[in-house]
Amino acid sequence: MQNNIFATMRSLKIMEGCKGTQVYALNPSGTGGGGGVGSVGEKFLQHLQDHLRVNSIRSKSTRSFQTNNVQVDNNTVLAEALATYGLPQSDLLEPVIEPCLKSVDFVDTLASVYRRIESCPQFEKSGMYLEQCAIFRGLPDPKLFRRSLRSARQHAVDVHSKVVLSSWLRFERREDELIGTSSMDCCGRNIECPKNSLVSGYNPESVYDLCTCSQSRREDTDAEISMGDDECSTSEEDFDMSFCIGDDEVRCIRYNIASLSRPFKQMLYGSFSESRREKINFSQNGISVKGMRAAEIFSREKSVDSFEPDVVLELLSLANRFCCEEMKTACDAYLASLVCDMERAMLLIEYGMDETAHLLVAACLQVFMRELPSSVRNPNVTRFFCSAEARERLALAGHASFLLYYFLSQIAMDDDMKSNMTVMLLERLGECASKSWQKQLAFHQLGCVMLERQEFKDAQKWFEEAVEAGHVYSLVGVARAKYKRGHKYEAYKMMNSLVSDYSPTGWMYQERSLYCSGKEKMMDLDTATELDPTLSYPFKYRAVLMMEESNIEAAIQEINRIIGFRVSPDCLELRAWFSISMGDYEHALIDVRAILTFEPNYMMFHGKLHGDHLVELLRHHVQQWSQADCWMQLYDRWSCVDDIGSLAVVHHMLANDPGKSLVRFRQSLLLLRLNCQKAAMRSLRLARNHSTSEQERLVYEGWLLYDTGHREEALAKAEESISIQRSFEAFFLKAYALADSNLDTESSSFVIQLLEEALRCPSDGLRKGQALNNLGSVYVDCDKLDLAADCYMNALNIKHTRAHQGLARVYHLKNQRKAAYDEMTKYIDKARSNASAYEKRSEYCDRDMAKILMDDHKEAEAISELSKAISFKPDLQLLHLRAAFHDSMGDRISTRRDCEAALCLDPSHADTIELYHRAREPSDEQQQKERS
To answer: Which GO terms describe its biological process (predicted)?
Structure first.
């Protein structure tokens, strides 16, 4: 059986057409080895070619191979097949350099941003929130980034910023993947309305109001205004001059034409000869008779709404030539109102840029941006952005900005980090950068892209530019580029200085470990893990090292340590590789299915084998399940909090029935549990697209809106769904969205009623357990601890294992700390994916430990305990608690800093606001000094 599976793997190696995003390559090119299978792999490949005859025709069925009368041991075949794809080698593993802003003192950075947002002028707040976006971009919680993005849009003043930010908010929801939607559809609020975005002015209070664009559609006129009728409306004697174009005359009122602009005024009333003529030859000015008649009508009526678009384009050109600002503004607005799809945008943007029509170009850009990401792959669109000349043309029209290129470059990096388009957009980003943080970001990301392209000299140059602009983290990039260029000792010295000069962090030791060996390397890796247990590279390195020492079971245990805390496709791939090498195809298949849930196009084994093909190979070697078996498996794995196993079962179910919206929805819930929101949103969109009823579709749309920060819109979807049919999911969505606020007694009672309504509707134990768990949480918030305990016990009775967390919280609030700790221990014993369990248990233990230390007047030790966690996870609650400890010690400066950092994460956190205001009040002693 092993012979069959690896023979087929060998045959699939020749595939060249499959491309995909590889989150982490096990054997990347670098110093000490090349790309591809590597030298070891090439030797084994040659050995296979000599001794094995492989059927190289691709197929979904398992192939068999024949030996040339050579009996090959199964273990040998296994080793050779793995080597064909390139065995993972510890000396070729590298940590990823994050392409985002990263601070050496993140708490101080958060506090600084909060202070500057609070103190800056209103019209500058949008730019400050954009900086906050850049800081939050590197955090695992995308909701923080989206909240800042909404705040930036809320405080935007000019049309350009509104257009870009509204389009970016829409892109974050990826509505392009929703069947039946148009790019110019409005979500119902001013904040993303395409028409509202084209209105200049500062009005932050109205952005969340309901949009009225559907009520203000421009009515088409029944017929073009007759020139003769207009002439009848003005008496013949009023016309006192004519413009002659060819053989035609356009009768005008001199005063009205002169009022269009200063050049016309000088022409008609100044020292020019035309001021003394009744007939002026206008044939050489590029305007038709029809266009000139329109200009005459505009001079009287101040409107272009009755003209055809081609006439308005003529008027726009005339307005530019003779500086007729009022007419240009009218033409600009009219033409902008016509831009409603890609075809018109492509047709009109050239006119807009040639005539520097700000609003028209904005409307065209808005269509391009609301069509992302597909439009960024269209060369006819990207030519307006990528080159330096294109940026200059945009600048003339008022649309070249750091904001625009930040948005476009992020999408390009996600699409293809190595592409020329990505490089060009980042270069334009750097050209638009004016503030320090903007230069840091642009240059650092250029360095990351050049490093990925293996253009190491350029990468070093850009990283050095970023360092010069103040981005200390870019020193990691400088060191890596030097290392790639053969200067390992220089890289080591640089990272050694970084560790010495700043408060040490996990990523500093992780990077330094690349440039040393032996015990020193392992010490750095261990220190990196101690300082930041979320870093995956140290675990991967140690695991691969154990595999090289033939200790595969220990390697799996090591990689399990990070997977239990933070799931990522690269770590799952490594574990799958280990499982295959042990012949444990069942666990390998589980991991591969989970990987494909995160990244459907993931390429295994250094990008040489599509994950779907590996699933086909592995699934013939494990027990096959029916759909009924899958539901049983899902219930069991969900109950024991085996999230990876649950994802694998769901992937299996969807392979058999890809249109099952309910299963897609369950998939999204699992992904959210694992903090994989991007993949979760994709699953939700697919659930919505495959929904079989209107009320079901509304629920999924509601969840999409809620998870991207549109709470009110989510509530509206839930209510609309309930009005069609009462269902568990609609009531649950409404209760969940309502609970996401500071609930008063009345609101809490309403949420309780909604959850009780949900529990009365048909559903299964998986979801009812979740509803009972949430109901218990509301009871806890209402201080009804006994009712909460009943809910958690009922949830546990239907195997909702996570209810142990809620029960532990109840015991904790009752000061039954041992019971709380024991309850979490039960959770850990039952849960397979127990990272959150350990985290919660440590939360109860560590916070209590900190409070005990405070009670024993060991404030410094308490703060030290909290600081360890804050250094790699700046959690709101931990920051608030440390601020309170600083306050009790009278350290107002540290109290304010921690409060500011916490409020940067959540500006509405009431307890922190109260503590912050108290810390800012001058002490009695200080007040006495000021009075004296």
So the answer is: negative regulation of ethylene-activated signaling pathway
Cα–Cα distance for residue pair 798/804, rounded to 1 Å: 12
The DSSP 8-state label assigned to residue 307 in this structure reads S
Three-class secondary structure of residue 275 per DSSP: helix
Q: CA neighbours within 13 Å on the CB side: how many for 37? A: 19
Q: Identify residue 93 by its one-letter amino acid code.
A: L
pLDDT tens readout for residues 207-256 = 888 887 655 544 433 334 333 344 445 556 678 888 998 888 999 999 99
Alpha-carbon gap, residue 798 to 363, rounded angstroms: 55
Q: Give the pLDDT of residue 15.
A: 32
Peptide bond into 379 cis (omega under 30): no
Name the percent of the chain in helix, strand, coil, to the closest 5: 70, 5, 30
What's the whole-model pTM score? 0.85
The terminus-to-terminus CA distance of the chain in angstroms comes to: 91
d(CA 895, CA 906): 16
Question: What pLDDT score does 450 carry?
Answer: 98
Give mean pLDDT, residues 616-628: 86
- What is the overall mean pLDDT for the chain? 84
Q: Quote the crossing angle between the two packed helices 125-136 and 106-119, to the nearest 10°.
A: 160
3-state secondary structure of 101: coil
Region of 15 on the Ramachandran plot (φ > 0 left; ψ -120 to 50 alpha; else beta)? beta
Question: What is the distance between the alpha carbons of residues 638 and 645, in angstroms, rounded to a whole number?
Answer: 8
Give exposure, 502-529, as e/b (b: 16+ Cβ within 10 Å).
eebbbbbbbbbbbbbeeeebbebbebbb
Q: Give the C-alpha separation, 717 to 847, whole Å.
A: 39
Alpha-carbon 895 to chain mean position: 32
Q: What is the pLDDT of residue 185?
A: 83
How far from the centroid of its chain's Cα atoms is residue 59's Cα? 36
Q: Which helix (H) or strand (E) holds 249?
A: strand 248-252
Dihedral over alpha carbons 305, 310, 313, 318 (to 10 degrees): -100
Both structure tokens of 442: 């642009």
Instruction: Provide the 10 A C-beta neighbour count for residue 229.
Output: 8
pLDDT at residue 645 tops 80: yes
Tokens of 268: 């008609």
Q: Is the pLDDT of residue 890 over 60?
A: yes
DSSP 283: G
Q: How far apart are CA 290 and CA 373, in angstroms?
A: 41
Q: What is the pLDDT of residues 394-449, one digit of tens each?
A: 999 999 999 999 999 999 999 999 999 999 999 999 999 999 999 999 999 999 99
Determine the pLDDT at residue 614. 87
Quick one: how far is CA 673 from the chain centroid? 17
Pick from 831, 792, 834: which is nearest to 813 by CA?
792
Strands (E), 30-141: 52-53, 66-67
HEC secondary structure over 308-372: CHHHHHHHHHHHHHCCCHHHHHHHHHHHHHHCCCHHHHHHHHHHHHHCCCHHHHHHHHHHHHHCC
Report residue 68: phi and psi, to 5°: -80, 70
Q: For residue 603, which phi and psi values (nearest 5 degrees)?
A: -105, 120
Q: What 8-state DSSP symbol labels residue 244?
A: E
Q: How far is CA 523 from CA 506, 520, 541, in A?
A: 12, 5, 13
> Hey, what are 586's tokens?
């069942």
Give the Cα separation of 54 and 44 in Å (integer): 14
pLDDT at 858 over 90: no
Of the candidates 301, 149, 186, the residue with the CA atom closest to the CA atom of residue 233: 301
CA-CA-CA-CA dihedral for 185, 189, 191, 195, to nearest 10: 50
Q: Which phi-psi region, left, alpha or beta, contains residue 518 (left: φ > 0; alpha: ψ -120 to 50)?
A: left
Contact (CB, 8 A) for 229 and 268: no
Q: Are strands 52-53 and 66-67 parallel, antiparallel or unpaired?
A: antiparallel
Tokens of 270: 């100044």
CA 457 to CA 453: how far, in whole Å?
A: 11
